[in-house]
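Troubleshooting entry. The earlier prediction with uridine-diphosphate-N-acetylglucosamine gave an output that would not parse, so I re-checked the input for stray whitespace and re-submitted. Clean input:
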Amino acid sequence: MKKIFITGCTGYIGSHTCVELLNAGYEIVGLDNFSNSKKEVLDKIKEITGKEIKFYEGNMLDKTILSKIFEENEIGSVIDFAAYKSVGDSVNMPVEYYINNVSSVLTLLSVMKSHNVKSIIFSSTAAVYGDSTIIPVTEECETGKTINPYGTSKLYCEGILKDLYKSDNSWNICIFRYFNLVGAHKSYLIGEEPNGTPANLMPYIAKVALGELPCLNIFGDDYNTPDGTGIRDYIHVVDLAKAHVSAIKKLELDKKGMHIYNLGTGKGYSVLEMVKTFEKVNNVKVNYKIVKRRPGDIAVSYADATKAQNELGWKAELTLEDMCRDSYMFTKSLKNKGVK
Ligand code: UD1
């Protein structure tokens, strides 16, 4: 069986996807430069699965290492997770973001092309929809009204992949648009480890509950939603990882095609609902106060996830309770290990 090459294999989504693919019997070749992850994740993946991935340390922009990987391994498909993902940093460092997120895809695709490997799953984001007027958001909704360089960098990559497919429809391309990822593997050995103060809601709530941050700032309670706070589609990272296993199976069967899927649960929860569920599931108190809206935020975003269900046979199974429990337990395990 040919191997799957995973870029960003020790990151939050990359590590969970490695676990699910190894458990499903696939062989993996991985690349990471640990710019936003740790070497120990490789040991954790082994501890969970009892299996190893063939690992290369390096940068996606380095054509030499990419070529070496394709020369030394028989690669069947690629899953490309390696990217910067901080919205705030992308606003402050757009050039670095475009180089890292867009040039890396171009380098990867050119190396894939020269080794005649034409099968790729690409990590995109619901941010490509911007503030959609249609809710739930389907894959046909308009894209392009991104509001930060992070979202725009992913949109450019989608455009590159679409052009590539138009030029040569023997490619097999799957674009996943992720909604709001949360949770951690039930071993609590891997999960999200944000650098510094988290920008996203769930890790922030977890740190408040653990007393590491004093209070959650809820960004606005005057949106046009039932309780006035923003509504998002939160999805457990293990469910999301499993979608990649389903997609790999589809790529193996289809051989060619270009497909785009939303990965969400299809349900939206408000910030206040998140806080309440988190408190109840974990039996903790989350102090919060309402502050003004965060610039660039939208009121409501959740997915129509039926396309992935119909075509990939994949559906998110884990509940909001699972997400709140696993995010808390993982953050707590970090605290117990003294990780800040
Ligand atoms: C953000 C990014 C999006 C990215 C996604 C996943 C923006 C505008 N969008 O989505 O591109 O794909 O993360 O990483 O940043 N909230 C609070 N207090 C907080 C943090 C968040 O009230 O301290 C609220 C937000 O206003 C929002 C919800 O919680 O209503 C979710 O926020 P967040 O977790 O940051 O995700 P998004 O903004 O949806």
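This one parsed fine. The chain has a mean pLDDT of 96.
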